Amino acid sequence: MSYQVLARKWRPRTFHELVGQAHVQRALVNALDQGRLHHAYLFTGTRGVGKTTLARILAKCLNCTAKGRGDEGVTSTPCGECDSCRAIDEGRFVDLIEVDAASRTKVEDTRELLDNVQYAPTQGRYKVYLIDEVHMLSTSSFNALLKTLEEPPPHVKFLLATTDPQKLPATVLSRCLQFTLKHMPPERIVEHLSKVLEAEGVAYEESALWLLGKAAEGSMRDAMSLTDQAIAFGQGAVVHGDVAAMLGTLDHRHVVALLEALAQVDAARLLQEVAQLAEQGPDFAAVLDDVTAVLHRLAIAQMVPDAVDNSHGDRDAILGLAANFTAEDIQLYYQIGIQGRGDMANAPDLRSALEMTLLRMLAFRPQGVPKPPRTTLPLTGANPETEKAPVPAAPRVEAAPSSSSSAHTPASDQADHQEAAAAAPSIDASSSDSPGVAPAVDKGAPAMEEPPRQAEPPPPWETQVEPELADEPGSPADSIEPPSASPDHGEAAAEAGRLDHAGWLDMFDQLGLGGLTRNLAAHCIVQADDGAALTLLLDPSQSAMQADVHHQRIQKALTAKGFARRLHIEVAELPPTLETPRQREAREADERHAGAVQALHQDPHVQKLRQAFGAELIESSVQPSERMTR
To answer: What is the pTM (predicted TM-score) of this model?
Structure first.
């Protein structure tokens, strides 16, 4: 006996054997049981979801001649044993006329088909016309079919199937009862494949079935065909490694490893994972697509955990991985991934484009990236003419302690400075204006008259810290000492050992918080502080920003200000008498704006413009000057 492929062997023969499509199954079963039969049915959907199978099952329901049913024995449960049912299953039923519209598109073919419509069925109860891929018919063929399709003889039923219903004329659609079949989800495909393989006695790995279910793209027939191929490829077994090699797809575990490296902010591991991927010769564009797809699932896992799909059988792993990201990081990474996918066309090669996209995700994250230790590289073959500006040697000689003494007196410091200045090479006077460069030494001036040089303070733009980087461990903000605090900036509260709400407001700007962490803290008020635990109340409208990483940053910032204790943030309605830092900031901004508007109204130049030209002051465009904001 010849081998029969799984897609044909396991083809459903009744509605109860049908996998999925419960909405279509329910409508047809109820119509058959109640005798409410339409003369034309249209089944639409992608390939391999059961359009032709449903049509054949419906044909058996209409023509089943089991004993006890009589001439009117239309049923939703065909017996499968009578002559009509067996003939339909074997494809030899005379009154089931199957037409492939893709090969019979001419109007002559349609007219020849309709010439036999008027004759009564030969063997069954109904003459059933099953027209597959009906959208391939020509316009003339549709016109020839319209009248018969609208008013066929009582013994004729039309069953139409198509993958592209948009190409059907509206006149045809209006004459049919349309059923749209859905894609098969991977979960349903894996469930059905496991039952088939167990019945066939084939060993399999569940992870391999998930690969097949994903590759089928919603088509059960494609899944069965791929399973046949996998059994042959694996010599009678369906194994994960063999299926991955057969499909040529990327192992999903590599994508998860890339996301884990992003969660750990580990750039070295990230590049190492890409190098391991490169050994398999993957499509790096597809890798980036898979990364952004997982980021989409992580965002859903954070917002609506119950809505996470299980298309790879890794729902629990995705939920666990989502806890290692903040919501803003996932949204940023997804946006960078989408833009990086478009930039791949202009990249020198796809691997470097993937690496740069992943590194860009870490570089632009709100918390920044921990900086590696800087090492001074020796300058070899440097040009003496260009080696004028950087003179770090003088500060190094000046700060280097003597090996024979543990302390320096002011006199010895001055002597060491003079020796360093004398040993330093002569410097062009034109370069003495640059910061950090020692001026030229006047040989005629007395050595004792030159006072010790003081290090010039850096310009203001070099000491500013970005708000987003201020709360990252290892960032420059951790090494910056806070400015000298006064009692009205929280120092009194720190000395007292308790933090009240007034102290919280005064010291808030000095905590160095940034990004969403600052936004979260700005909507909090102090409820209680017992010395061991600090409780903050959060505005309920901002509860979606709650995350452990924000709590840790706030607690670290408070510890640096002398309030080392456990931090609790509770969501509750805030009393109207207390003002959050955000509300205070908004109030002060309104006050500055009102003061600026009032100053402009009183300005004589503005008054002259209003009198001379009828000018009007647009108050919404007024911005306080820098002096008014301080």
So the answer is: 0.53
